[in-house]
Amino acid sequence: LINPVVVAPTIAAVGLSFYSYGFPLVGTCLEIGVVQILLVILFSLYLRKISVIGHRIFLIYAVPLGLAITWAAAFLLTETGAYNYKECDVNVPVSNIISEHCRKHVSRMKQCRVDSSHALKSSPWFRFPYPLQWGTPVFHWKMAVVMCVVSVIASVDSVGSYHASSLLVASRPPTPGVVSRAIGLEGLCSVLAGLWGTGTGSTTLTENVHTIAVTKMGSRRAVEIGAGILIVLSLIGKVGGLIASIPQVMVAALLCFMWAMLAALGLSNLRYSEAGSSRNIIIVGLSLFFSLSIPAYFQQYGISPNTNLSVPSYFQPYSVASHGPFRSKYGGLPKLPYFYQ
């Protein structure tokens, strides 16, 4: 059942599903977001063949280099007062801002500054996380049912990532046993994440599949060494504070590149199938279209067609929808579509 015709729209749909998040957030601070996108494109497309000490650093480190340069530029702009506005304080909640002048610039102060979170200054140098550090986990069976649905969706995404990765490294497709062990390991890691109180489960990050395509690096040893380095860095609080200081606009700009690569990577798997087959065309077309159209239905459900909106209802964000199409006494069910979006 798992073949390129299934893998291609599954991976591509993940990349396309975030289209409404990418550039709309980049547009809140264009001088940083656009520079981030252009730098990554410049490194990965035009400087990819330049070698430094025998390594194509612009190809391998296109994303971290672009991120570092853009963050440094944002830091200089913040320190030189480019985002300081007279009598406006970034720490004042939006609801408490009275001045119309400050309300006009509050979005730029929040999105462009690197010190809006104060995480870098307030974080300790060293911190050792331990199980149950935030208290005993609370279990609710209704929320557990919701999480089971989310886990199934994440597992389908992971299976597609496994097959896409195997195609990129010219390896055999993962066997049912390999897939079963991988999904089981994700479940075990989710249990550990709950004990450590991370707030999120563990799954295969589909965006990382594009890293193999960009860097041409498919070594397990590189992944193992990288995992060891990340474990060590997790003990250094300033590293987490530095990551938290990255403006959201930079994250959105970076994800614009990653999700675009992901969509293209998914569609590229069609070369391993009979792309001209009418059956395959119908499967891929319907999968991609409904992967965008069905979530839009849930996002816009409940919007009155007679409201005086300046733009059509299908351009409205999902937050304006008052409720979903499901009705039940349990409040979690109507909000289930929003939960896993």
Automatic annotation (TrEMBL):
Keywords: Membrane, Transmembrane, Transmembrane helix. InterPro entries: NCS2. GO terms for cellular component: membrane. The chain crosses the membrane at residues 25-46, 58-77, 138-156, 225-243, 249-268, 280-298. It is a multi-pass membrane protein. Signal peptide: none annotated. Its main location: membrane. GO terms for molecular function: transmembrane transporter activity. It is found in: Membrane. Belongs to the nucleobase:cation symporter-2 (NCS2) (TC 2.A.40) family. This is Nucleobase-ascorbate transporter 12.
